[in-house]
Amino acid sequence: MSLPYILLALLILAVAGFFVGRGKALSSANGDPRILHSLPGYYGWNVVVLTLVPSLLVLIVWLIVQPAVINNHVSSMISEETAAASSLDLVMSDVARVADGLDLAVSQGAMDAEMANSIRTELTDVRGRLGQVGVALGSNVTAETLRAAQSYRGWNATGLLFRTIGVLAVAVLGFVLGVIRTNPDFRARNSVETVVRYILIAAASIAILTTVGIVLSLIFNTVEFFRLYPATDFFFGLTWSPSFGGGSELGIVPLIWATMYISLIALAVAVPIGLFAAVYLSEYATPHVRAIAKPLLEILAGIPTIVYGLFALLTVGPLLMNVFGGGGVLGVGWMQGASSVFTAGVVMGIMLIPFVSSLSDDIINAVPQAMRDGSLGLGATHSETVKQVILPAALPGIVGAILLAASRAIGETMIVVLGAGAAARLSVNPLEAMTTVTAKIVSQLTGDADFASPEALVAFALGMTLFVVTLMLNIVALYIVRKYREQYD
Amino acid sequence: MTDTTLTPPSDTSNAPTPHKIKSILEPDALTRKRNAAEARFKIYGIVAIAIGLFFLVALLWAILANGLGAFQQTFLKVDIPLNQEQIEAAEKSVVKTSKYRAIIDGAFAKELTDANITTDMSARDLQKLFSSGAAATVREYALANPDRIGSTVTFELVASSRVDGYLKGRVKREDLVEDKNLDAAHLDLSDQLEDAGILEKRFNWAFITGTDASDSRPEQAGIGASMIGSFFMMLVVLFLSLPIGVAASIYLEEFAPQNRVTDLIEVNISNLAAVPSIVFGILGLAVFIQFMHLPQSAPLVGGLVLTLMTLPTIIISTRASLKAVPPSIRDAALGIGASKMQSIFHHVLPLAMPGILTGTIIGLAQALGETAPLLLIGMVGFIASNYPDGVAAGFFSPNSAMPAQIYEWAKRADPAFYERAWGGIIVLLIFLMTMNIIAIILRRRFERRW
Amino acid sequence: MNEMPNIEQANEMTASKISADKVQVYYGDTHAIKDVDIEIEPRTVTAFIGPSGCGKSTFLRTLNRMNDTIDICRVEGSIKIDGEDIYDPKVDPVQLRAKVGMVFQKPNPFPKSIYDNIAYGPRIHGLARNKSELDDIVSSSLQKAGLWEEVKNRLDEPGTGMSGGQQQRLCIARAIAVSPEVILMDEPCSALDPIATAKVEELIDELRENFTIVIVTHSMQQAARVSQRTAFFHLGVLVEEGPTQEIFTNPKDKRTQDYITGRFG
């Protein structure tokens, strides 16, 4: 049974369970629900929960484990020479494609099931046969691949059978258990609520699982990378020049430099504008102006980063070229192309303005009115109150907000991918194209590189660096902001 | 600046003579200076807001000025006689479209003579006025409507991107010097054709409903297929992140004991909200594709990654809505003997629902515009040239998504694709705007003041 | 402590420090203060009493235009200080507030050191030419507020770290440091315990020598203890104003009598 049918079967079983459980509870109480410990519905739900929860758990675990196990088994059939010639991943995807092709051929009647299991490359043109049913293969199917594919199919079919049996058995078991346990004294509500509570806990722990997933996927591949490429060269290397033929130099320093440079420019744009805007909106603006200007500024925060990327690439970049480029208004020729650190930095700054302003706005508003009154009551002007009382009082919070903005800037991808350039460079000229950590993660993982090569794995090391840096910034910033909030709560 | 060892003045009368303010009606010099500083400070604020708004206007202007063109397309109206033998011959040939091209050439030459336009251009050169996909359009029509073979059909064929650009003012005569696809004679001819009513610009439905096209046919690229891709991703995000987010928030807000584990979860959630989105892409690549072997480029995977990314946002806003429900409601339910679970699911949750939905819509809007993680799970580089056939394929078969499609176009060499990219942004922003407006309306309508 | 002003003093109406004439205050559509006429005498403590919501605090805040910070608030009528209308468009509220200081209900020291709290006012108003003058202002203000002995060794500690009573006296010292002529106090003791309250009341009585003080209070006992004159507000109307003893022993208005005897409040 394929997945949708299994789910359907479970659903039917669950619905049936609800009515059976509810009915049994009512009949055991002779139709008088007042005798029951819980409302009759809870007895129904109890059966539903017992039917669905364990069986779905089994199903999920099965779905995750089976492909891994089968892959493991089948890949052991691939000889080392074949694996060395291309990569194991590629061979395995070939195997999967051939296996899918065989499935399709069987389902369309182009082959019978027995034939699919017994054909040999020596005897049949498998590629041609599969081509007829619409499965295009890049190269001829080797005997080895075909055998692996057939075994893959076999394993899959067996797995599917056992999965169906296992899941349905667990579901029926739960069903029966639930019905047996139904009697007027059974505390169905408490039992259902306990399960619901565990479901809630499970949902809450997804946050932890996500973090664990991020850390694990980064660590494993990073360790793999450092096995192939020395860590010191990575962290202290001054050149970044990956070449897919091997002999790459993968030094992170130029990437970090450009990342910091762009973030700095972005903050130099966003912090003063955002801060002054926040002060004006929270301290001076009439409610009317505030009601208009604040949401308008926040539109900037709602615009997707891809839009800013395009804005940098196609509008701001060419505009800067017209000013600083050769033949531009200034005629200085400082800029070679539209992409540059400055382009990306300015556009990122625009993106961060509402981020800084709305965070600062919240923080300034959290300063108690009594502070303002105290200062105004002494005859301070409004700006003196802001500069000498409110901003110093809000300083920790604002520092936190700026750190959060910095973390945002460091992790921003689309603007730098489109606006900053692709060549890694260590330069102080902001009008030159440079490239950042995030941009390189994208280019190393979207290229054609083999996932096992250092050129692709380096992306995970870059990701790890990025994750650690932003995580530290976030933790510090959130800690500061939290402490600040507590101070005035 | 503070001096802890101030000596007390021996006598208060020795203190500096109290400052006497003469009259409050005449400001003194210092007050004037302070008021000037005050005015300056206020101006800084106004300038900051003005700069912010200027950027907003510049951005919107850039989008509209560059992108509106994508919603217009130049078509060539040609009457083509669908001749039985010609079509059969074409179907037998190896390169079928070139034969159809010849059919178009013949019909077009006739159109020119009918319109009294003379040109010394070869058929090959004339062909450059058409999109290279024009022949395929004719072929598909002929194959789909065998009953029309033998009659003359008026086709509206897509003009090539250069001609299209010329009519929209994007392509200038001076740009053509280095262009091997088109020269000035083509433009003269285009002017004549336009006067004759053969060449005309109309609303481009194909851009909204169509699929992506290869590098050489920007005029045929549309955002429709990736819209479907985004739609399926949003379904995944909605159906996973709403229940999980609500469940997690209920636990954290209502049940969680104050202990280390709860603290850990809370710190985790606020950190995840600030983790760069590209990191979620790495997670998706490593876990969903490398480890679980889910199909690359599939909206399902995109949806899963975006779910993990939006969950923190949704949890944070849901918790805020739950917190806003006053404790008295909970007490009232508990007081008449409801269980805690009942008080929450019967009273607190329905009251918090408008806030939760608002937060969810805003989270979805964020996810809809997110690009970076999609790059890593292969939703870029894939040419979404087909619609998914069926719901399962919608989730599982490779597709693009709107922002990924826009990025794809922005990377291509032909500037005609830039127009598509900006146009795609307009479509994307319309979706985002609609979602946000719905959220605002929800908030306005159901906002409660306790 | 309660020294009754003699007849001559009471007759010197021309010498009044603040005189309000037909003052109306509106909050949006709400008419919060109606037709208030009052003369406030120099170097006296005047207490405003009345049930909560009667407008006494609102009226107090109109005296140094703190109501300006509330957008929907509108004031009509005239309030003169030393014969000058404080709502004259030429008046700069900043200069006015330097002359009419204010102490608030809840102690609100700035999150700065004790020294900087006191020095803040003199600094912004440019009252000191150099550091030593500023030091003198700080120490004399703290002395006048009776806080000097308690804090002289910890002037660089944050003002927020003191006890509530100390914080309120710090706020009074902060107000004194600007050398105002009038000090408005909005229920200055409502957040304090009885011992701290006693100290602040004692301080108010001492300050009477140099300043005109207007105090809003909830507690009639406090009004009786510290003030020479008392004004009773009810529903935005000034019901009765006169020497404190007279108000408490022989009120002319029925409403005053009811309030003082505890019929409502």
TrEMBL record, chain A:
Gene3D superfamilies: MetI-like. Residues 256-477 form the ABC transmembrane type-1 domain. One of its GO terms (molecular function) is phosphate transmembrane transporter activity. One of its GO terms (cellular component) is plasma membrane. The keyword Transmembrane helix applies. The keyword Transmembrane helix applies. GO terms for biological process: phosphate ion transport. Pfam families: BPD_transp_1 (PF00528), DUF3708 (PF12501). Keywords: Cell inner membrane, Cell membrane, Membrane, Phosphate transport, Transmembrane, Transmembrane helix, Transport. It comes from the Bacteria. The chain crosses the membrane at residues 43-65, 160-180, 195-219, 255-279, 299-321, 333-356, 389-410, 456-481. PANTHER family: PHOSPHATE TRANSPORT SYSTEM PERMEASE, PHOSPHATE TRANSPORT SYSTEM PERMEASE PROTEIN. Belongs to the binding-protein-dependent transport system permease family. CysTW subfamily. This is Phosphate transport system permease protein. It comes from Roseibium aggregatum.
Automatic annotation (TrEMBL), chain B:
The keyword Cell membrane applies. Residues 227-439 form the ABC transmembrane type-1 domain. GO terms for molecular function: phosphate transmembrane transporter activity. Signal peptide: none annotated. Keywords: Cell membrane, Membrane, Transmembrane, Transmembrane helix, Transport. One of its GO terms (cellular component) is plasma membrane. One of its GO terms (biological process) is phosphate ion transmembrane transport. It comes from the Bacteria. The keyword DNA-binding does not apply. Its main location: membrane. It is found in: Cell inner membrane; Cell membrane. It is a multi-pass membrane protein. The chain crosses the membrane at residues 43-64, 227-252, 272-292, 298-316, 348-369, 421-442. InterPro entries: DUF3333, MetI-like, MetI-like_sf, Phosphate_PstA. Belongs to the binding-protein-dependent transport system permease family. CysTW subfamily. This is Phosphate transport system permease protein PstA.
From TrEMBL, chain C:
Keywords: ATP-binding, Nucleotide-binding, Phosphate transport, Transport. CDD domains: ABC_PstB_phosphate_transporter. It comes from the Bacteria. PROSITE patterns: ABC_TRANSPORTER_1, ABC_TRANSPORTER_2. Gene3D superfamilies: P-loop containing nucleotide triphosphate hydrolases. Transmembrane segments: none annotated. Residues 18-260 form the ABC transporter domain. GO terms for biological process: phosphate ion transmembrane transport. GO terms for molecular function: ATP binding; ATP hydrolysis activity; phosphate transmembrane transporter activity. SUPFAM superfamilies: P-loop containing nucleoside triphosphate hydrolases. Belongs to the ABC transporter superfamily. This is Phosphate ABC transporter ATP-binding protein. It comes from Roseibium aggregatum.
